[in-house]
Amino acid sequence: MKLIHLSDTNIGHGNNVQRMQSLLDDIASLGDPADYLIVHTGDLNDNSNPDTMQQSRALLDPLAEKGWRILLAPGNHDCGDALHVDPGRAERFRDHFSSYIFGKQPKQFPVLTLTDDCALIGLDSNEGEMGFWEHWMAEGNLGTAQIESLNTLLDRPDVRQRKVIVYLHHHPFFDAFAVRADVADKGLLSHLFNWNTRRFRRLKDAYTLMQCIRDRVDILLFGHQHFGLDYSAEGQRYGIPLTLDGSSSTATQMDTDRMRYRVIDVATGKFETRFVGLQ
Ligand SMILES: [Fe+2]
Ligand SMILES: [Fe+2]
């Protein structure tokens, strides 16, 4: 089976509806939906307004109706905005997209989807961030209860006998930036802004997560920071062979004319990057 990794499509911002449509058209041209599973690692929406969520569903539903399987993890923008998450909006998001988030599973995280050869485990990295003092800024926090459930899940024989794929929104490697924009790359102000606010976009319990999943997971997928880099070198320190940041699938690199997404062969761990031109 192959995974298609999408992330941070931020529907509701700019012309991301058209961009997302181009991406989905390209995905639909790949072949038989039965050979693929689409994993979206959050920030599907730019905000949680009902109009925006309807637009997103209108994009995903036709693909799902044609047999494409889509799994979705909640991002901070889905549950609030760039600066905070909100419990009420998080619930609205879960309700609106429950068929993509939970499928036929119980409506709680971690959520487990089993295929013939894969165990896919979705996490909600906003869940531990909903308390009054925590929910400011776009940090992630899985929370003790969710990581404990993950720990139990990873011991299950039906999980262990499959390839294990964990997906979540927030970036689990706070310091693992292979490339940092410097003053000459993006201007002094944006350099200073990004440098000083990075801690407010982190996953606060990344260390506990990595302690839990080390040597037990084959593929780790996430988004949020829009770096779009292959973090496998970092993940391999934790015994995780393939670790990918999905970037923002609807954004273009350096404002060039193409978007990108990854297609990952689960059996071999090899992946290719598909480029999609803007219309
Ligand atoms: Fe994002
Ligand atoms: Fe995000």
Structural features, described:
The protein is globular and about 50 Å long. The mean pLDDT is 92. It contains ten helices and ten strands. With 279 residues, the chain is of the alpha/beta class. Helix 1 packs parallel to helix 2. It has a single domain, classed as Purple Acid Phosphatase, chain A, domain 2 (4-Layer Sandwich). The longest helix is centred in the first third of the chain and has 16 residues. The protein has a five-stranded mixed β-sheet with strand order 3-2-1-9-10. A hairpin with a 5-residue loop joins strand 9 and strand 10. It binds fe (ii) ion (2 copies).
Order of the strands making up the biggest sheet = 3-2-1-9-10
What is the strand tally? Answer: 10
Could you give the distance between the termini? Answer: 30 Å
Question: What is the typical, i.e. mean, pLDDT?
Answer: 92
Strand and helix order: EHEHEHHEEHHEHHHEHEEE
Low-confidence stretches: none
Instruction: Tell me what the CATH architecture is.
Output: 4-Layer Sandwich
Radius of gyration, in angstroms, nearest whole number: 17 Å
CATH class: Alpha Beta
Q: Shape, please?
A: globular
CATH superfamily caption: Metallo-dependent phosphatases
Number of helices: 10
Structural class: alpha/beta
CATH fold naming: Purple Acid Phosphatase, chain A, domain 2
Fraction of residues in H or I helices: 25-40%
What is the number of domains? 1
> What is the multimeric organization of the chains shown?
single chain
